[in-house]
Amino acid sequence: xxxxEIVGQQAIKERLMRSVMEGRISHAxxxxxxxxxxxxxxxxxxxxxxxxxxxxxxxxxxxxxxxxKYNKLVHPDLHFVYPxxxxxxxxxxxxxxxxxxxxxxxxxxxxxxxWFEQLSAENKQAVIGVEESGEILSKLSLTTYEAExxxxxxxxxxxxxxxxxxxxxxxxxxxxxxxxxxxxxxxEDQLLRTIVSRTxxxxxxxxxxxxxxxxLVDRYGLSVEAAGSxxxxxxxxxAEALSLISVNENAGQNLLSxxxxxRASLKFDPKAVMSWIxxxxxxxxxxxxxxxxxxxxIMRESMILNYxxxxxxxxxxxxxxxxxxxxxxxxxANIERFIDELNKAHFHMERNxxxxxxxxxxxxxxxxxxxxxxxxxxx
Length: 379
Description:
Elements: H1 10-21, E1 28-32, H2 39-51, H3 65-71, E2 78-81, H4 97-106, H5 112-118, H6 130-140, E3 150-155, H7 162-173, E4 179-185, H8 193-196, E5 200-203, H9 209-220, H10 224-234, H11 238-249, H12 251-266, H13 270-282, H14 285-307, H15 317-326, H16 335-350, H17 355-370
Parallel strand pairs: 1-4, 1-5, 2-3, 3-4
Helix pairs in contact: 1-2, 6-7, 9-10, 10-11, 11-14, 12-13, 12-14, 12-17, 13-17, 14-15, 14-16, 16-17
């Protein structure tokens, strides 16, 4: 992973490279950033830069023997730990190392949901267990093979259970010589304070909208207008932007599903609601998340059609025809609750909520909200 492949975050990149050039590499660092900010990709790029045999002023060379191995995530002095779904056959990260490399190479902005979907473990608890800590200690007790440093990247370190975290305290404070810990975390509050206190904080913020827009135009061929619409909803997350692109690609299917839900919810037709729930529940979690993002998009465009310049509406022909009829049901008295309910459903879906219960609740809420009277404007 090269720094130039990471979207935006230029100040952090420069800070990390400068610390290497000046020999100020802390033995334990915490890359703290929200989902989609690129914190994991940044940690990998930083590790590659440290190990690069021909460092450039603004990036790794990308061609030395070390970089070639990093590009495939197979460098013998690079180690990963990440959440897994514990089972009889899977006790540590090593058991699914090949799946991890494939997933990370495919998407450096991988989310926990993406990762567990790859493992077909969407409904299981994500954890870094105590056996993982023992394996970390074992790996880091060895001497380096090729690089100056052994580097251990722990992705979503907040998923360490207390036993695992406590077992690492001593090695984090007094690591073996030439050993680096790079912890990647999205929620500092869920990480033991004793862990946080032993690390140097590298805070990574949401990505600048302009940087996401440019990346979508350059890498995915979107028009500036389409990229701008996507960025507006992505809220600084490149992972979310990629998810929204997928939503747009599946707009026809999502529109049909949205129409079914709204029609069934309006007068609450139990048979139609249950039929829709069976359909959406049979889809994968990513498809369900995409649908909720699409629903937010339709709500937003409906509000624009009602209260702003209709030329600002960004919809396909079939969507425009539907929204003209649907928009009167979306107004100032219910839009905030619609958005709140969809955001809560999205949140719970990412945390493995039961899909049928979640969507039944959503249908009940939509029945209530669709029947909220439109406020009368005072002249």
